[in-house]
Design brief:
The complex is a heterodimer. Chain A is an all-alpha fold. Chain A has ten helices and no strands. Chain A is elongated and about 95 Å long. By secondary structure, chain B is of the alpha+beta class. Chain B has five domains: 194 residues, FAD/NAD(P)-binding domain (3-Layer(bba) Sandwich); 108 residues, FAD/NAD(P)-binding domain, CATH 3.50.50.60; 150 residues, Jelly Rolls, CATH 2.60.120; 127 residues, Jelly Rolls, CATH 2.60.120; 180 residues, no CATH class. In chain B, the strands form ten sheets. In chain B, strands 1, 2, 5, 6, 7, 8 and 17 form a seven-stranded mixed β-sheet that branches. In chain B, strands 18, 19, 20, 21, 22 and 23 form a six-stranded antiparallel β-sheet that branches. The longest helix of chain B is centred in the last third of the chain and has 23 residues. Classes of the chains: A mainly alpha, B alpha+beta. At the A-B interface, helix 2, helix 4 and helix 5 of A face strand 19, helix 19, strand 33, strand 34 and helix 21 of B.
């Protein structure tokens, strides 16, 4: 079973819209022969600029739309059984098609259009500049916009690519369940280690105390721990099993297995944290940059209105 | 020497005591005859310290005898005092063997040979003379007992209590104090015990003091001497056969009227049904003039009712009019529709008009009506729509109602249901959407009965169960096969049909078996699987309303696939000979079945083409998706784990998210989050004391504000989707300004922090109050969340199989 991804939404509806917009812009630009040269101030330049600005406003609205949940009005709230008089007024569709089941918007649709229309801006805004760049607020806002767009592209890529890896890594587990398992491994290992040398007890104890999952943002993104005490313990244990009697050797192998399992679990947990950080971190650029771009855009528009 | 009395009252139970006390109070010459050594012998046999209930609470008490809910001892002491105070002429040890004569000159013969004559006789002997036994080998072993005097007499034993009625539940609760107790109930739900007992029982089960077995029946009892146990019980449940070793069996299976004895007095019974009660006038007079019957024998099993009747019967004998206790309630309910009738006549007219209700005793009918709603829909008003999810039951009192439905080809069929018919039983029994639209045709009057009351009736009145069973058989056969069957053909099919029940995973028939008939799925769903190179391959998933097994039947070949119940399933089996004959007789049916056969063969071909093991399907079935009507699935290849579904849910539902995205099983890329599946037969609805869980017409199972926070539903849900949470009344959805300038990254808030605040059960209501539908799906930015129902499940899976 597979849902439709945000790029494929409604049979590439917004791809088609964007492609059409870009084609129109390119054709218009190539046919237009303004004097002295193409720039933002020509008729086409204005049209392109206004169109791009409207799209920007629409794109910014996604952030608002995402955070608004539908209202429940008191009058809408039905409690108890519907009486016979209400029975006839049921209007909701009952068909079980997921798509369009309730009509109206889906956030996925918004995101799909957000991605494609955002891409459109590359063409629209670039043509709007007429390829005139300089050291000014206009070019600054253009650059900021490009940063926003490409950070968005990266985000789209991450959204489409990472979920699969997260699932592969986690299987049926959750981060919480893996952390609980690690706790269990620690308990078992420490108990089992007691019968061995101080060196082994120390290794296991260090692994429990110093193994770090997550950490600050960059540590999360790295998904590694330098000299991870668990890996170290597993490594060192390999050479410490010499000279044990059969019984004790079996016990030692058990301990080794527990630590090896823990190492795998720790690696999985770190990977999960890393993936989630990657799913998040681009937004820390995308969102503030878009605010910065909005400010620059306002400056750009104000500037041309006042200093025409 | 013959003694003479005006009134002879036989049986010193609650009804007899009440009648005798009232007679004594009025100074009438009377005698109260009791065969046992004590008055109120049945209640005396209640276990020590048992709380005697005073149900139904709304019914006022009218008797010369005092009675309030309390310990058995208090109740008995009060009655003894009443008997003494009023100088009631009580004769214990007086067993009546014969009554002859008629009003004014009854002769009552006692087992001692003494004869008593009386003008009137009040028969109040109850039902205890005719206790039901287990009906299996070993039922008369000495440690198999049918009553329990003192539960504290047993200690440290393993005891199996059989029967989920009040007696069984009370015994089990009392025995559980000192013993290990199993409680066997015939049905799936404890619908036959009163509310108070039900709550105590649920607490006991939750705390592990009583181990329940539902849908259970005893198949065999054997005396053994093994590991200290003296009895071995074979118990059949839906999960299969279980062997329980124990020391003692206490079976409380109820009792039926001592019919032979009563008939020997000249009293007639309306039908052969073992549970039927004597035919009585509204004043409790039997067909023998002057012989009155009250209490449990008359069909009124509750103490308070019996006490009231004892009072009333004396008044009737004196020729006085008495208004019954629940009269005013019923009057108010019936008056708008049966204005010119008294309540009694109204009830009689209802029974005359609606044959289904004719098997009910007056009491049952009164109770039934008290719980139902009587209303007059306007002409053309829609009672329910095709695919609605309501599950109440409708009886037509007046007028006609039009049913619109579709046959298998999508052609619309409509027909009229007349006065006396009923509808809505398909939804009630199958738990699925309504199979038709019903509209009022003209001015009619309907009785709408809630699901719970109807289930109670089905369980307690055999004639209702039989009628509904037969009718629903007919309708299922009709729906599955063809609307075009003639009445006699339908009769023929129905009479030769057998109903079979299967548990989840049980096989209906195996690949390679000889074809034994056509299986019509009435309830639940089945999966059709075939072994292919040692791997099991799911060919199809069929919900109720379909049939399987026609392929082997038509081509006269062995079964080409194995069919297995996906969830607990009920099928109607039409045997090969019956179907073959019908196919020869009815060409339309033949065409329909043959068309289906062709479709199946062609579909199989396609599946063969891209044959592959259907692990995903098996996974979904294991997770109970087969009983879901609407389940939230997350495509983990698209889910970015942003938990926006939970945030949106919490924001629209008082700050508590009804789903847990991360929890729940995952298979390949399909994740089933912990969230309500809106089951066909919701487990949560089973034991809701305030009846706060309902299903709306669109199928959403939701909890109303009347929730008392008892936690039963949380415990009953096998999918852990109900949680007890504090509802934050001050939770407000964020406004646009807050969205823009409020805290930017907000975490999903699972519970409100105040631990001491009262908690209520909360669960997914599929955003029934939000016109745009479930927010979890709608507000998923990547479209990973989707909701599916059984109809689209197999379709969705097929179309999306990886190629």
């Amino acid at each position: 079973m597979k849902s439709v991804s945000l790029l494929e939404f409604k049979h590439y509806r917004y791809f088609k819209v964007s492609a059409f917009l870009m084609m129109v812009a390119i054709v218009a630009y190539s046919l237009d022969k303004p004097e002295p040269e193409p720039f933002g101030g020509t008729v086409l330049g204005y049209i392109l600029g206004i169109a791009a600005a409207l799209i920007v406003v629409f794109l910014l609205l996604y952030g608002v739309r995402k955070r608004l949940t539908p209202r429940i009005h008191a009058s809408n709230k039905k409690n108890g059984l519907e009486s016979s008089s209400q029975r006839a007024t049921s209007t909701r569709a009952t068909s079980h098609q997921n798509e369009g089941r309730y009509g109206g918007f889906t956030l996925q649709g918004w995101l799909s259009s957000h991605v494609y229309l955002g891409g459109t801006l590359i063409v629209l805004a670039t043509l709007h500049t007429g390829f005139q760049f300089g050291l000014n607020v206009h070019t600054l806002s253009y650059l900021l916009m490009m940063l926003v767009i490409f950070s968005g592209f990266y985000g789209t890529y991450v959204y489409l690519y990472l979920p699969r890896l997260v699932t592969e890594n986690m299987g049926g587990d959750t981060l919480e369940s893996i952390l609980l398992k690690i706790k269990d491994f620690d308990r078992f290992a420490e108990k089992r280690a007691l019968q061995f040398s101080d060196e082994i007890i120390e290794l296991v104890a260090l692994s429990r105390q110093k193994t770090r999952i997550g950490g600050n943002f960059f540590q999360q993104l790295g998904g590694r721990q330098k000299n991870c005490p668990t890996s170290l313990a597993v490594q060192k244990l390999q050479g410490l099993g010499k000279g044990y009697s059969d019984d004790k050797l079996k016990s030692f192998h058990d301990l080794y297995a527990i630590m090896a399992h823990k190492e795998t679990a720790v690696a999985r947990a770190r990977k999960d944290v890393k993936y989630k950080a990657r799913l998040d971190f681009w937004l820390y650029f995308h969102a503030p940059l878009s605010i910065a771009f909005l400010v620059a855009l306002v400056a750009h528009i104000t500037a041309i209105l006042f200093y025409w | 020497m013959t003694e003479n009395f005006k009134i002879a009252i036989i049986g010193a139970g609650p009804a007899g005591i009440s009648a005798a006390t009232h007679a004594a109070e009025l100074g009438l010459s009377h005698v109260l005859l009791e065969s046992s050594p004590y008055p109120a012998n049945t209640i005396r046999k209640y276990q020590k310290g048992k709380l005697v209930m005073a149900e139904p609470a709304i019914l006022p008490l009218r008797s010369a005898v005092t009675f309030a809910a309390g310990a058995r001892e208090h109740v008995l002491a009060a009655w003894e005092k009443n008997l003494q105070q009023h100088h009631v002429n009580l004769r214990v040890g007086a067993q009546v063997v014969q009554i002859s004569g008629t009003q004014g000159q009854f002769e009552i013969k006692l087992s001692t040979g003494q004869v008593i004559s009386a003008e009137f006789v009040v028969l109040a002997i109850g039902l205890q003379g005719n206790i039901h036994k287990l009906g299996v080998p070993g039922q008369d072993l000495p440690t198999v007992q049918y009553q329990l005097d003192d539960p504290l007499a047993f200690e440290g034993e393993t005891i199996v209590v059989v029967g989920g009625g009040d007696a069984g539940v009370e015994n089990a609760l009392a025995l559980a104090q000192q013993n290990r107790v199993f409680l066997l109930n015939r049905g799936e739900e404890f619908t036959r015990c009163n509310e108070g007992n039900l709550q105590l029982l649920q607490t006991a089960i939750r705390e592990g003091r009583i181990e329940p077995r539902v849908n259970a029946s005893v198949k065999q009892v054997e005396a053994i001497n093994e590991r200290g146990f003296s009895l071995s019980l074979v118990v059949k449940t839906t999960e299969g056969k279980e062997n329980i070793l124990c020391h003692r069996v206490v079976a409380r299976l109820g009792a039926s009227p001592p019919r032979k004895l009563v008939e020997s007095f000249g009293v007639e019974f309306p039908h052969a049904d073992i549970m039927s009660v004597p035919k009585l006038s509204s004043q409790y007079e039997s067909n023998v003039p002057g012989l009155y019957i009250v209490g449990a024998l008359a069909g009124y099993p509750l103490i308070k009712q019996a006490l009231n009747h004892g009072f009333e019967v004396i008044e009737y004998i004196l020729g006085h009019e008495v208004e019954l206790a629940d009269e005013s309630l019923l009057k108010a309910k019936l008056a708008p529709f049966l204005p010119s009738y008294s309540v009694d006549k109204g009830l009689a007219s209802i029974q005359r008009r609606v044959p289904l209700l004719s098997g009910l005793t007056t009491l049952q009918l009164r109770e039934f009506l008290l719980e139902s709603e009587v209303f007059a829909p306007t002409p053309d008003e829609v009672i329910f729509n095709l695919n609605d999810y309501s599950n109440s039951f409708f009886s037509i009192l007046y007028g006609e109602f039009a049913v619109y439905t579709e046959d298998n080809d999508g052609k619309e069929i409509s027909f009229l249901l007349k006065e006396g018919n009923f509808f809505g039983e398909m939804g009630l029994l199958s738990g699925r959407r309504r199979t038709a639209t019903v509209k009022s045709a003209g001015h009619g009057v309907l009785i709408e009965t809630p699901r719970r009351s109807m289930l109670k009736l089905i369980n307690s009145v055999d004639s209702v169960r039989r009628t509904l069973d037969e009718i629903s058989l007919r309708r299922v056969v009709q729906a599955c096969l063809a609307g075009s069957l003639k009445e006699d053909e339908l009769d023929y099919l129905v009479h030769n049909a057998t109903v079979r029940r299967y548990d989840a995973g049980q096989v209906l028939f195996n690949q390679g078996d000889k074809a034994d008939g056509l299986y019509l799925i009435r309830r639940g769903s089945v999966m059709i699987v075939r072994m292919n190179e040692g791997k099991e391959e799911v060919l199809a998933y069929l919900p109720a309303g379909n049939y399987v097994g026609e392929k082997a039947l038509i081509s006269d070949t062995p079964r080409s696939a194995t069919v297995r119940a996906a969830v607990a399933t009920e099928v109607i089996l039409l045997e090969t000979s019956v179907v073959t004959e019908m196919l020869a007789r009815n060409n339309t049916m033949r065409d329909i079945v043959v068309t289906r056969y062709r479709q199946h063969i062609l579909a199989d071909q396609k599946i063969n083409f891209k044959a592959q093991p259907d692990d995903l399907f098996n996974f979904l079935m294991q997770q109970g998706v087969g009983e879901a009507t609407d389940i939230l699935l997350i495509d983990y290849s698209l889910c970015i784990r942003c938990n926006h579904c939970e945030i949106a849910c919490a924001d629209t539902h008082g700050g508590t998210s009804r789903l847990n995205r991360a929890a729940g099983p995952t298979h390949a890329n399909i994740h089933i989050p912990t969230s309500c599946r809106h089951c066909e037969h919701p487990h949560c609805m089973k034991d809701c004391p305030p009846n706060a869980i309902h299903r709306s017409v669109n199928g959403e199972v939701f909890i109303t504000d009347s929730c008392i926070g008892c936690g039963n539903c949380e415990k009953n849900c096998p999918y852990d989707v109900i949680q007890m949470a504090t509802i934050d009344p001050n939770h407000e959805q964020r406004s646009l300004l807050q969205v823009l300038f409020g805290s930017f990254a907000r975490k999903s808030q699972k519970t409100v922090s105040d631990v001491d605040a009262p908690k209520k059960a909360v669960k997914c209501d599929m955003c029934k109050d939000i016109s745009s539908g479930p927010v979890c799906v709608r507000l998923c930015p990547t479209g990973a969340a989707l909701r599916v129902g059984p109809e689209s499940l197999s379709m969705t899976m097929r179309s999306n199989q990886p190629s």
